[in-house]
Amino acid sequence: MAEKNWHEGSTLPIAVQAVVCLASTVAPARAYALSDNFAAPSYLGQLDPNVVWEVLIAGIVVCAFLAAIALWIHSSLRRTRRLQLRRNAFVSSAMNNLNQGVVMTDAQRRIIFCNDRYLEIYGLTRADVWANMNGYELLELRRKRGVLGVSDDEFYDKAASTNGLITELPDGRAILVKYFVLPNGGSVATHLDVSEQRRLSRQLASTKQFLETVLDNVPACVAAKNIEDGRYIFANSTYERFWGFSRDHVVGKNARELFASASADSIEATDRAALDSPDGQFRNEFEVDRAGERRMVASIRIVVRNESNKPEFLLLVFEDITDRRSLSKELESAKKFLELVVDNIPVALIVEQVKDGRYLLANRSAETILNRRREEATGLTASDIFNPKEAKLIIARDEAAIKKRGMITEEHPISTKDGLRLFLTRRATVLGDGGEPQYLIKTHEDVTDRRQTESRMAHMAYHDGLTDLPNRAAFLQALTQMIEACEGTGEEFAVLCVDLDGLKEVNDVFGHALGDKLLIEVAQRLQDSARGGVVARLSGDEFGLIIDGKQPDAGLALAQHLGEAVAEEFQIDGRAVRAGATTGMAIFPHNGTDGASLLANAGAALFRAKQKSRGTISLYQPEMDQQIRDRRVLHQDLSMAIKNGELSLAFQPQGVARHSVAESEIIGFEALARWQHPVRGQVSPAEFIPIAEESGLIVEMGEWILRETCREAASWPKPLQVAVNLSPAQFMHGDVVGLVHSILIETGLAPGRLELEITEGVLIEDFDRGLALLRRLKALGVRISMDDFGSGYSSLSYLQAFPFDKIKIDRAFIINLGRNPQSAAIVRAVIDLGHGLEMSIIAEGVETVEQLAFLAKEGCDGVQGYLLGKPLPIGKYAGLVGRAEIMELALKTG
Known about the structure:
By secondary structure, the chain is of the alpha+beta class. The protein has 33 helices and 31 strands. The strands form six sheets. The protein has an eight-stranded mixed beta barrel with strand order 23-24-26-27-28-29-30-31, surrounded by four helices. It has a five-stranded antiparallel sheet with strand order 2-1-5-4-3. Helix 19 packs antiparallel against helix 20 (512-530).
């Protein structure tokens, strides 16, 4: 435009010069004409030749001038046209090299310009855009090519909006279109590929959302504020919960607008301290007022700088330490906190660097292993700490764990200041970022006491808890071994079943405590009389012996000697107690060739002897099979008793273990079956329960007991617990889970009030099935208790496999508390074991205040026994279940 303007300005002087020249040429002639009185010449010939020449010359000059002007104008037009072409080429080149497509239209929406980038974006060519094509035709072309998915109206409406139109192309690209209408009616549309921007935007949004999610899940209060005006720009959910208002309420406000004056002063002072801190960080503890409540918070503030290293905003993190301020004072830093945690791990922990074997970390518990302070061990190796023999062994085990790159567990003895102790050592390798072993973590747990406890438990599995004699399981094993040793040799041996006469009377008169002491004394006399033979306690008052030698003479002689030994008076607790022994005997191989047969036949002989007379000795005879017939009669009577309603329930209280009976609050009852025979009278459970077990009647009887117990307990005003024994036979036959479920629904008893007591026999027969049934029962919400723990096959594996709610310690261990150190140690071990497994412990057979006090001291959870109450009809305990004001508690005396 400047050049054009310049050319237009230069035309005026030339035109002026031409007019002046023309005027100067014509002037003389004009003057001449005027000078002759204005008379027109009549003849050319009369003109002055000089004038004619001047006119001719002037005309020539004018023509030359006009020609010059025409040439100049032509030249100017050509220069202007070339300049315009250069400008157009420049503009076209510039527009074609833009990173966005451009389309221009005139007022009639005809395409007047379309750059190369536009064609490239949509995969078009110049040939696709014809002359006088309008905008609608161009959109239709794109629609046919599949690069436009909106209508024309929608395209122009959205493209003309502030945000423009985002077009998604088939290849995944995103094009931002913006449409502008020009004042002359034309338009300009820009097309920008924003695929990368959108990807980055999504990534940024995802990152922002991730960071916000992380911050929202941080258990501490996190917020940020602008340094310039002190207004909050972020707050996480923990911050919201602490202050009790939403982040929307927080963002955009300062401390003065949000908090009480005192709190705002503390917050602003802390902010200033962080800003003035040389390293841009400040930690402190201060009080704030939260809804009128003073709370102590531990805070850290960090000054965050921008890319120009200028402070931009303040990040603050704080937590409420009101409830643990005493601990927080001890934890000055995260490192000290971790050290405190590590030091309180109940196992020795050592971290070793793989590359050089140096110890990097050891807790206080490890000092027992290292035989020195942990600070002194840091930086040393095993060779520096242990003697060469121990160090060589330790290094070899460390290298094996590193090579395995996994967990290695082993037990081995380690010398400590307390002597040689057994440790369970675990070694775990920690890999670095490159996948190479970097650290070795070693834990050492002193399992000496545990293994001793397990050894005692293993002893309990095959020994009677009261007398410490082998139990029935151990006796059968010994019997099998004896048969194997004598088989085919012609040798004989006798199996004796000895029943202690008078035990029931002793229990009834003097109490079970003295009765148990009598059993212990009898066991000792039997061992002394057996002269090395095997002696075992088979049941409550029945003992078994294996005697070799010529039979039946040797067996009969020993039986006679045993009877005499037991018949001698016992002095127990200052009382004279008398008992007797009745013996049944079977001989191998004449009366049986396997352990079960020999023991059964000896039992049959004992039954025959007791029928004849107490204190007698009976040798097995085949006709003793009559005993089986008698038992069948009792079985038939029991079957009728169940149908005729001769069975009843007695309930024995269970209380909390306290130091006195008055303090032992009753928390539940155990339901026990009783049989009033129309002819025999009261039949002992010791007689009819084994028959029910053997015959299978226990399933039907157990169902009746369970239903009646639940119905009775559901009627109690007080929601006390009730315990019911389940027989292994109930697990082997029928749907015990469905039965319990249906009875709970039928009676309306809350599942949590029902406790099912089982013995290890449930798991012995079929471990997997029994375990599955126990889990299904527990899923109903009832509680599961391990009954008579320690009296039979009790195994730690059962406790490990199933989370019992309760363990019942057999009364045989309780009766000797205070007299037998072994019983106290076993009871203490069972309590510790149960609590370690998060199971409650209840002791049965508690009959003295001393036993109660010992159990309370050792942390036993519950007790059951004559001290609290005998098994009686529930009417006798009406007050305990909330039916009467007077509580009748039948305390044992004697």
